[in-house]
Every structure is written in C-alpha cells, then in structure tokens.
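Exercise 7. Given the components listed, write out the predicted structure of the assembled complex. Treat all entries as one system.
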Amino acid sequence: MTQSFRLESGGFINRDKKISFKFNGKNYFGYEGDTLASALIANGVHLIGRSFKYHRPRGFFGAGVDEPYAIVQLYRNGETEPNIKATEQELFEGLKAKSVNCWPSVNFDVGAINNFLKIFLPAGFYYKTFMWPKSFWYKIYEPFIRRAAGLGTASTKHDKERYEHKYEYCDLLITGSGPSGLASAYSAAKNGAKVILAEDKSRFGGTLLTSEVNIGNQSGKEWADSIISELKEMPNVTVKNRSQVFGYYDHNMLVMSERISDHLPKTKKFHPKQRLWYIRAKEVLISSGSIERPIVFGNNDTPGVMLSSAAKEYLKVYGVLVGKKPLVFTNNDSGYETAIEFKKNGIDPIILDTRKEPQSEIIEEAKNMNINIKNSYVVVAAQGYKKVKSADVAKISDNKEELGSIENIECDCICVSGFWTPTIHLASQSGNKTKFNEDIDAFVPGISKQNEKTLGAANGIYTLEETLKDSFEKGNLLSKKITNNENKISFPNVVEKKSTVHDKFWCVPLPKGKNYKRFLDFQNDVAVSDIEIALKEGYRSIEHVKRYTTLGMATDQGKTSNLNGLQLVSKIENKVVPAVGHTTFRPPYSPVSIGAIVGREVGKHSKPTRKSPMHSWHEKNNAVFVDAGVWLRPRYYKRGEENLFEASKREARNVRTNVGVCDVTTLGKIDIKGPDAAELLNRVYTNAWLKLPVGKARYGVMLREDGIVMDDGTTTRISENHYHMTTTTAQAANVLSHLEYYLQLVWPELNVNVVSTTEQWAGAAIAGPKSREVLKKLFPKSDVSNEGLPFMGYMEADLFGVKAKIFRISFSGELAYEVNVESDNGYFMWEKIIEAGEEFGIQPYGTEALSTLRIEMGHVAGSELDGRTIPYDNSLEGLLSKKKDFIGKRSLSRKAFAAEDRQKIVGVVPLDKKTSIPEGSHLVKDSNAPLPNPKLGYISASCWSVEYDNPFSLAILKDGKNMIGEKLFVMSPLKNKVIPVEIVSSHYVDPKGERVRS
Amino acid sequence: MLHIKCPHCGMRSQNEFSYGGDATVKRPELGKEISDQDWDNFVYNRKSLRGKHWELWQHLSGCRQWIKVQRDTATHEIFKTLKANEEIS
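Answer.
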C-alpha cells in the first residue's frame, strides 16, 4: 500500500525512517514519529473496528486520549495487549495490530445485524431482555454476549515484562505541557521549586504544536522546545513525556503512569515496560487543556466523521490528510483553523457554520483564502456505510429548530467542532466543587478542596495571552510561597488571531420522516433516542441515566460525550445544565494496564518470602515446601517415590517410636523485659503468671476483649524481669501489636518493653521417646535428665561452643525439647542434631507430620483458634483464672458463651476406620434429612492417626460435652461425601499426658 | 492515600500505618464490676461519625508507636495528631 494521504512535507515525523507494520494481516508503511492512527490514515485506512452494541463500522474520531473508536488488539514482542488506542500507540518496526469487537472480520461482521435490529436494542436492553428465563443466562445469553461484545482479549500467558513503582515528593506537580504547563513550570522552576512536569504524549507542547501563534518572535513549537530544553537542564525539574497523571487522591497524592517501553519494538534490557509514580505534591497545577466536543447529527458515527482539532493535528503533526474532500461543520472559529490548514496544503474544504454572520480575524483569513463558507448551515446526516461518501446538509432557521431543504454535498470526511470542554477530571477527582460556565457551555473547576489550581484551557481560558499570563503568575506565586525565592520573568510578546463567540448549538434536529441514529456516546453506542427512553421510563438522576444507558461509561469515560448528554437531559427535563449536574469523575482518567498497578509484586514477589536459616538443608534433603504465612516451611521430606500421605505418616510414626526433628524457627517470638513483665502477662493471659519461677515455661492462652481466643503459646521466665514469649506463626505480628496497644495506651504505667525476636532465633523441636538421648549427646556438659530439666523446664547450655536455649515443651505430645540458637548458628545446630540423632533413627519431619501429631493429641491450633471460638469450645476452660481479671474475661459471662449446650471440641472417627474425612465438612444427625439439614458442627482438622492407623479428625460440635459416643454423619457436599462417624474424645492419644512428662 | 504526621517520625504515608479504631473509648478498669450494657458499649458499640473523629493508628512500619489522629471521616482532612500519652483536648 502507498501512503496516498501523506503530504510531501510538513509535520514532525521523520520521513527518512520508514517503519513497516501490520494491521489485520496487511502490511503497511509509516514513518518514525507516527502513531498507529496517523500511519493508518496516511494509508487511507479508516475502518478500524465495530461498535460495541450495533457493530456499526468504526473509524477514527480523535487523535489522542479522547479517542472513543480506534481501540485495537496490539501484538508486541510475542505478547498481546487489548484496549490499546491507535491514536496513542506510537508506531514501531514490526508492530502488529488487529481490530476488536468484530466477528468474523471487520469488513464482514455478523453482529452488524444488531444494527438492523436496533429497534430491539434500546436503552436498558440487557437489563430488560436477558433476565428471562433465568436458566438461559449461563448457557445461551452470556456466551453469546461474550463473543459478540468486548474490546479485545486479555493474554492468558504470564506477562514477562517488568513494571515498577516509584514514590516521589515534589513542590509542584504540573499535569500537561501545553502553554499553561510550560509557563507555570518555567516560572516555578526559576524560583527554585522542585517541579515535576508530566506530558501524556510523546511530544511536549500540547496545542502549541498545532496552533498558528507567535511567542517572543518564535513559533509556538519553537518556544515550547526552548522552554523544555531549558527545563530539562535544571536539577530541580523532572520532565516526563509519555506520562499520564491519571488519579488525584487524598492529601495531594497523585498517581502517574509512565509508558517507558510501549513505543519500542522490545523493552530494553533491565528497563521496565511501565513505571507507576506515586507523587506527593505540595501544590498541583492542572494544565490538562480541553477536548473538542462534537455536534450531534444523523449517522455521526460513520468513519470519516471526526473532531476538527484531530484533523488539524493529523495534518500539522503527522503530515497526513484525513480526507481530500473535507467538510468542516462548526459552531465556532476552531473549525476555520482546520479549514485554513487544508487550504494551505492545496485541499479545498467547505465550511458549514451554524452561526449566521460571525466575524473575526480567523474568519476573515478564511474568506481571504477563498474558502467556501456556508453560514447558518448544518450537517443533517452523514451518508456512506464504511466511510463517509457525502453529507446531507440544510440551512437552519435562526431559532435552530427548522431545517431548510436537504442538499447533498459530496465529501470524504466531516470535521466537526462543537466548541471546547475543559478537562476537569483531575480537579473533580481532588474534590473540587466544579461550576458551570455559561460562556463556554461547560463545567470548570470551582472551589478547591486540596492544594490544586487549574490553568489555561482546563480552566476555560481559551486565549493564549491570558493563559500564559495567568500561568506564569500562578507558577511564580505558588513556588515563591514554598521556596521564598523570586526570579521575575519578563512576559514574552504574544501574537494570536482573535476569535469570536461560539454558537450554543450542539444537536441537529431530525428532518421530517427520517429516523437517523444520532450518537452521543460513540464507544457505547448511546444515541439521543436512548436517553429519551431512559427519561420516559422515569430515570431522573444523571447518575442513574448514565448507568441505565451506559452513557459515558466506556473506556473513554465519556470524554467526548458527557456534555452533549447533559445538554440533552437538561433540554428534555427543561432544566439548566448545572441543575442536572455531571456524573462523578473517578480515576483512572484513561485506562492503566494492570501490570503497572501491580508493579513488582507479582507471583512469588507478591509478598516477602521468609526462609529459616536451615532452609538450604531442607532443600538438599528433598523437602517439599508449603507457604505458612510469609514463611516457607518443609511440608514433608520426600523419600523415593513417596507421596505426601506416605511421607507424613512415616515421619509422624518415627516421632512416636524414635525421635524426629522439626524446624520451628517460624514460631513468633517476643522478648519481654521490665519489672512489670509478670503483671503484663498476668493481664494478657487467662491463667496465673505472677508465681512462675525463673527457668520455667508455662502454656498460656490470650483472648480478645470479646472473649474469643486470640492466640496460644508458651512463655518462659528467663530471669527475674525477662520473659521469652512464643506465639503461633500466623499471629506473631498481631500479638506484638496487641501487647504494644495495651502497654502504650491502656496501661502505660506498666514498666515493660516488648520487641519481636522471631528472626533472631533459629529453633528446632526434637520430639519422641528417644529425644533425651539425642539431647544428652548434644549437651554432654548439661544435666538434661528428667530431674535436671523437667517438663516445662528451661536451661541455657553450650552446643559445641554455641550458646543455646533449651525449652522442654512439646507440641507433639511426646517427650520433646525445643532448642534455640542465634539465627546465624541455626544451620550448625541443625546439622549437629541430625548427626547426634543418627544412631537413634532421627528423621526430620515437616508441617504435615506436625499436624498429624498435634491433631491426634487433641492440641488446638489455628484451625480451631479461628476467631470464632472461646476457651470452652477448645476445652481450654481449665486455664481460666477465677481469681484475677484478664483481657476478655468479662465477655465470657455473656449468656451465649455460658450456654449449657455450647459447642465444644471433640474427636471424630469414621465407623469404617478407613474413609478420610474432608476438612470443613459438616456434622449432621440425619444424612437424609430434608434441606437445609441442621448443622451440628464442623470438621476443623483431619489426619491419619499413626497411633491407631485410621483416620481421625477434630471437630467443633454443638453440645460436644455430651456427644461423646454418639453416631453422626459427616457431610461434604463439595466432595460429595457422606461418612458415618463416631464422636470420641479430642484427646485420642495419651489422654493423661504421661509421655510429655516421662 | 493519607499523609499522616507521626508525632515521633514526621509526615509519613498511610501504608506505614494500621488503623486502630475510636481513640476515645476507654477500657474499663480491671477487676471492676461492670454492667452488661457498659461492657457491650466498650467492646462492640461504636458511633459511625461523619465529621471530626479521634482515632488510633499504629505506626507499624515505623516507630511502632500507637498515636491518636483527629481526622474528618468525610473529607479525610487530618487536623491534629497526638502521642499515645497525650490527652485528647
């Protein structure tokens, strides 16, 4: 294909560098500096996709972020990305893109039948129709809608690109590098303020790139270039292009997405694809400019109908003609500027101006160039299906209600200008109370809530001189306040052509007997008739009208449609626009890729991974790991072809018969020091702590104030005023915060300090009848006999030159010890234990065996202490002191907590002694009872008892106390299982606890 | 994201803190008789205020101190922050 719509010269593209790309399988060429849109238009391609609802042909409407139509599926470096605007995507060598929302192809789309069935697809169609019959939804409606609709396909592959997050602080954040952004950034930078200037596009300058103005004897573009290059040299200024500030949050926090590599064929090594900036700015200057709004007329969605400013941008920036027979339809002077640009390039445009006798410098220039101008004329309807072929036009009466006779004018594009809408999204997001400006028929920022000010066109100021003056001044004033420094800048001489007032005309009436679709929202196919239906059906609030009709709800968030929608509602409702109000602007201003939001926190990096000092030993010995909170713990150590079940049984059995060793480094550890440490423990734990002797450990349970068990663990008195507390792995952080809360806020008079030492100590649990033999070998100089180190005893000892702490505590119910050494010595300790234990058949065991051992002993853990149970439920009521008060005690006297038939922990054994019981299953009395079958309890934890070689579970069961010996059913609808079971004591093994004391 | 002035560390982002609820609730004294109603008020019943609200935050990823913050629940404006031992005036 040839670039038959490309001019010989002009624009800011590099004609020396040809770039090849593919669209819908066809090869094309563009130039360096093109967007996908400008390159396609240069090649005469105007059919880009199909519309969302009616599958009508779609072309280009804008030239940037406001584009509602030209959304493509992009292919880059083996990856694919949906929802890419062709008007924003810069061209790179080898770019591939495809149309979306069409099937089987953009030229022949089956869904276009909707266009002829449109009478059946009015506002709220989906709500009304696809509701019945209900059973049709999953099988028929949804798959159909899914295939027919949608704006592209997300990749199902892992995204190999890297995305970064960056946190930044600055004095002034300036959003947009048009005249107001440049002027304010320049004066603020000169005052020494720390400035960030963000530009969404690749080129700086905004409208200065396309307007015929003169600043200080330079063209607008030259002036912009010189300011930018000066700013880039200043150390206190950060200038960023391809960076969209898309969200304004509380306390002047703004978020910006920087597209670092999207314009390159491939991301450079060590570079991220995109970077998300979290910017905390002292002051924000919003210089986001304005977006041209369309005038509504029949078939105004036909490819070839586009904003007049976009046509001008394609011409001036890319050297591309959007058409060779242009019709300009305008209600203000901007359309003339576009027409003049066409004329300068040898193209004869026709201007249709809705105004009767407008006069201004710009209009004068157009007349002098002999441009055909038709006053009081409107476009009634565009003709042509896949591209504009002609326009039906007519004279319009002074009251704008009567159309004259219809004439047909041949044309290949219609450039429409309905005046300008300030881009107030960021201001509105910041909480600014916007107000309606009658002069420009649009909302502008009003009273600020946060430290922001809006400049230039975004504030409804449409002349360059005024914009520059105001922006220089605001930049100067705000930065002076921060830096106490002032560098006055002399104001440059500005030359611009004066324009006259616009016509408050936005919608062409329908001619008699014609029923053209007149679209308000181009991406969501919302037409004038849809809004009329919504209002007829009783929708009044603009927020409801929006949701019912989907006006302004698509990925372009109504950038081109909102105001015309408001005009229509206010007209039908006979209200003024400010009384209707606008819908809430919410971030993001334009779509942001999920990758950028997620940043580096992907997969394994979504949270930190903590490894014990013995981790590499576990790895070397075939450990299979499991996530335990943020920790990686060995689940089991695989031998040969063993599976989880076999390995964990072997490991648990070895603890019961010989000796095992388990890495318990992950247990939370809190160091507690101070003269009131005992008093603190006495208040935090439910049992008595004041008389615990030095060198002794005690098991304790702590509650929340509502009486629910929070955590359990042992705490050891190391010396008079020094305690070592252990918590469960999962609750370690919460328990520390809990203690800090009471010490800092509730009982500040207690003289105690707490600090987490979880990562300072490596821990190993040595458990089993032969554990003492192992200990004797490890600590030959210490007396570790039953008398020297009794159950719940503590001693400090020497482990081959390393300082160790030995706690005689047990989680497995066997004779057991926990040895702690400083983390750096953890690996050494572990190797020594394995070495010393070899002759006793020591085996490492993982969390699965650990669970088995604790379950068959009836020891409660996280699955029972699940935030729903009180001490009684866990058979921990023996640990409730009657003599003293403690956190949560008062709650235990609540009626429900003291009920006679309260739930309680029990053991559950299947009658056949074979069928494993799924965790989470329900316990019921009668498995055949009609639904809903009353639930008596639930299975909290299951294991295969190695002691009895049959399945065993723990359950929390209503009236558990009196249920021992009962026969019930376990039901798991999820696994489709019904298992007859017997309720037994939760202490399945060694109910008297003799082993731990042996 | 809020910007909270920790009385110990200075201005910090919200993601360094965790929220701790109403700062004006006083825990009943240990060992003292208390009616069911009063206890329920302490444990469960909270006003969901619109407007100025004294609340607790812990500077979890900083100094680990619990602090008192006066915040407008509607606008998120923060008026004042206090150390744990400073009385709300």
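Discussion: Chain A touches chain B through 26 residues (CB under 8 Å). Residues 130 and 141 of chain A are 7 Å apart (CA to CA).
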